[in-house]
Amino acid sequence: MFTAIRSWISRLGAPKRASASAPSLRRNTDTLLPFDLVKEKIHIRGWRYLGFREVEIEKIMGSVDRYQDFSRAFLPKQADQGRLRRIKRAMEREEALPPVRLYKVGEIYFVEDGHHRVAAARERGAKFIDAEVTEFIPNVPLEPGITDRELLIKAEYSEFLRQTKLQELRPGARIEFSDLGKYRVLLEHIEVHRFFRAKEEGREIPFQEAVVSWYDNVYKPLVEAFRKTRILDFFPGRTEADLYLWVSEHLHRLRRWLDPGIGPKEAVEDFVDRLEALIREAALTNPAPFRGAS
Fold first, then answer.
1. Alpha-carbon gap, residue 253 to 259, rounded angstroms
2. Which CATH architecture has domain 33-138?
3. What is the pLDDT of residues 219-254, one digit of tens each?
4. What is the Cα–Cα distance from 63 to 31, expressed in whole angstroms?
5. Mind listing the pLDDT tens digit for each residue in 36-53?
6. In degrees to the nearest 10, what's the CA dihedral of 184, 189, 193, 199?
7. Do 162 and 187 contact (CB within 8 A), yes or no?
8. Fewer beta carbons within 10 Å, N or C terminal of the chain?
9. Contact assessment for residue 157 and residue 149, using Cβ atoms and an 8 Å cutoff
10. Domain ranges of the chain
11. CB contact set of 161 (below 8 Å; sequence gap of 6+)
């Protein structure tokens, strides 16, 4: 039904689903997330001691040094079952137990000490556990439930931010993709923008200046046009950054074929018009999926 739409979008460089040859973390995905792996992949801006507090057990999904001993759901694999039973009995008798020690990265927690206490509390259905927390501050947001593939995308984003310093140059800017390999393309866009600015102005453009100029004059105007047209509604599960790559390619083609003076707003409007035409064509060809749609 949507073959024509998929074909058109794919020609604009739409993200493909991960293949068997896509990068991986090369680990058993049923184990806890290793803290060292996250520190290796994600740039850490600093750390601070948060002290004692209650922590949601659902957000504890990693370990500092025992990630192979427990599953992602904190089910013991190679744990001391006798110790686990003793801790569960102590909890049932409401005996005082020392707080677990956790590392916090984004919204994810890693156990430094107290794996059996976390496992026992989770098995008993507890929602929170007392913890002593040290926070490591990443340069990208990390949410509970993150998959290995999502972590790889975050790692690429983290490296992009390190290279461009976009967070410092434009606080609050967020450029998030739904697939791998796209931040490399953005760096190419920035370098192309830098080249043409240098050519126009007859001077060398510092990289950080090019980043700001690209964000303010290329990326941001397109994204603002997306929001006005609500075009992202056509693509559930995709992001503004995904759409930026498609529409920027569409803009490049329009400028090459029709008019070098075509701007971002016109490119988005033309993109929407073409998309709606393809959807109308699909509806005429096979109207059944569209019946009852508002």
1. 9
2. Alpha-Beta Complex (3.90)
3. 998 888 888 877 777 778 889 999 898 877 766 666
4. 9
5. 999 999 999 999 999 999
6. 80
7. no
8. C
9. no
10. 33-138, 147-285
11. 43, 139, 140, 167
**Rounded distance between C-alpha atoms, residue 143 and residue 109, angstroms:** 10
Which residues are bridge partners to 103 per DSSP?
A: 110, 134
- Helix ranges (DSSP H) in 165-239: 166-169, 182-201, 207-214, 220-229
pLDDT at residue 183 above 50?
yes
Torsion of CA 216, 217, 219, 224, to 10 degrees: 80
| Size of the chain in residues | 294
Q: Share the mean pLDDT of the chain.
A: 82
Give me the residues paired with residue 108 across strands: 105
Instruction: Measure the CA–CA gap between 241 and 17, rounded to whole angstroms.
Output: 16
What tokens appear for 117 in the block? 């206490």
Q: What are residue 63's phi and psi, to 5 degrees?
A: -145, 150
Our measurement of the distance from residue 119's CA atom to the centroid of its chain's CA atoms, rounded to an integer in Å, reads 28
* pLDDT value of position 69: 85
Contacting residues for 66 by C-beta, under 8 A, at least 6 apart? 32, 111, 115
